[in-house]
Design a protein that fits this description.
With about 200 residues, this protein is α/β, with parallel strands linked by helices. The chain has helices at about 10-20, 20-30, 50-60, 80-85, 100-105, 110-115, 130-140, 150-160, 170, 180-195, and strands at about 1-10, 30-35, 40, 65-70, 90-95. The protein is built from 10 helices and 5 strands. Strands 1, 2, 3, 4 and 5 form a 5-stranded parallel beta sheet that branches. Strand 4 (about 65-70), helix 4 and strand 5 (about 90-95) form a beta-alpha-beta unit. The protein starts with a strand and ends with a helix.
């Protein structure tokens, strides 16, 4: 098994990557998640001057490959985010087209469960600059309660995992969620190199 470390921009990503569901997925493709899954505490903490400490923590735990998960947010393009992060060449930087929470919208199975709506499909999950607002609007339109506007991201992540079985692998199958698909492609590529 390849030992893989993860540095996440924020707590939402850390919750999902730390989950038993994601652990089981990694095990199924013969990858081993290294602990801790690091929450960098915001994209400003993914600058090169901070990144080396996170990298060293994971390398000390035996990581053979390191992924960095971040959001594009207000940057003009994914390439500009990768330049800002300026990660070592052997790191794999995954940039959500807008924000990581758009991956929730891409997992139609989890969203159907959350919204109690077996017909729900989001055609363009990565088109929303603030996907949690879209999720909140969808809940409200159905008369359901959802997480609060800002602090609700963590609650939403926990809901999606614990009650609605969110899966990055399912999000990656959405035809319009390229960042999740890229993440799955890179994970599978590493697994195939060794297995």
């Amino acid at each position: 098994m390849v030992k893989v470390g993860f540095i996440c921009e924020g707590e939402t990503e850390r919750i999902i990557i730390s989950s038993p569901q994601f652990h089981d997925f990694l095990q199924s493709i013969r990858l081993e998640r290294i602990e801790p899954v690091i929450d960098a505490g915001g994209n400003g903490n993914l600058l090169p001057k901070f990144l080396s400490a996170h990298t060293n923590t994971l390398l000390a735990q035996g990581a053979e490959r390191i992924f960095i998960l971040t959001d594009r947010e207000n940057y003009p393009c994914i390439t500009s985010v990768k330049k800002r992060v300026d990660a070592p060449n052997d790191h794999i930087v995954i940039v959500a087209v807008q924000q990581f929470e758009s991956w929730f919208l891409a997992d139609s199975t989890a969203m159907k469960s959350l919204l109690k709506d077996g017909q729900f499909i989001c055609d363009a999950p990565e088109s929303f600059s603030v996907p949690i607002q879209e999720i909140g609007s969808q809940l409200k339109a159905r008369g359901l309660r959802g997480p609060g506007r800002v602090s609700g991201k963590l609650t939403l992540a926990k809901w999606m995992l614990n009650y609605h079985n969110f899966s990055i692998a399912r999000a990656a199958q959405h035809p319009n969620c390229p960042s999740a698909a890229y993440f799955m492609q890179k994970l599978n590529s590493i697994a195939k190199q060794v297995n």
